[in-house]
Amino acid sequence: MSSLGGVAFRRASLADAEALTQLMGQPEVLHNTLQLPLPSAEIWRKRLEAQIADPLQIHVVALHGVELIGSAGLHPVTGSLRTRHVAALGMCVSPAWWGRGVGSELMRRLLEWADNWAGLLRIELGVFTDNARAISLYRKFGFELEGTQRAWALRDGEYVDSLMMARLHPKPPQLPAAGNPA
Predict the structure, then answer these.
(1) Contact 38/52 with Cβ under 8 angstroms?
(2) Domain covering 2-168 assigned CATH 3.40.50.1860 in the classification
(3) Cβ-based neighbour number of residue 107 at 10 Å
(4) Helix H segments across 60-159?
């Protein structure tokens, strides 16, 4: 676990299920994610079990003291061999911590893992068109707009649009230059 200005970051554990339930249940977080109201700790325990057991996934949490204030993860988009270089990104930060660098640090850590250890070429995400703060964060880290998904999700009884954004690895790994035979 390492720290940034009193905020610690580490991989999620099963013990985080209750705290994730509370984070995801905050109205402002719920409004900007695909989570459903009244989340359950048991559902989060099951999700965490699957994520922890899968080496192709990473889930990082941000903590201030014992309070879980942010969550971000990369997850395979399919089980297909042909798309193993692609991951979907999901993240959220407690509203009390918006604009304080927590989202940027979560993103930096995910991309470091993706680029240097996981062999991911493409990271994609969906973000509601009215979530300007998140869109700005994603652009800052090299995500580009690929299109608009009209009436993509039901939120508070209305269909809302989502932007599809993606980031390709800025410097994909290459084989070293072949040396001259002696």
Answers:
(1) no
(2) no
(3) 22
(4) 102-116, 132-140
Contacts of 55 (CB under 8 A, 6+ apart): none
The per-residue pLDDT for range 22-78, each reduced to its tens digit, is: 999 999 999 999 988 888 899 999 999 999 999 999 999 999 999 999 999 999 998
Write down the domain spans for the chain: 2-168
Tokens standing for residue 124? 């994609």
| 38-41 contacts, C-beta under 8 A, 24 or more apart | 41/17
Band (181; pLDDT cuts 50, 70, 90): low
- On the CB side of 177, CA atoms within 13 Å amount to 2
Long-range contacts of 109-113 (CB under 8 A, 24+ apart): 109/9, 109/60, 109/72, 110/58, 110/60, 110/72, 110/73, 110/74, 111/141, 111/167, 113/58, 113/74
Give the mean pLDDT of 114-129: 96
Q: Residue 119: how many CB atoms within 10 A of its CB?
A: 13
Q: Please say whether the beta carbons of 134 and 178 come within 8 A.
A: no
Name the 3-class secondary structure at 63.
Answer: strand
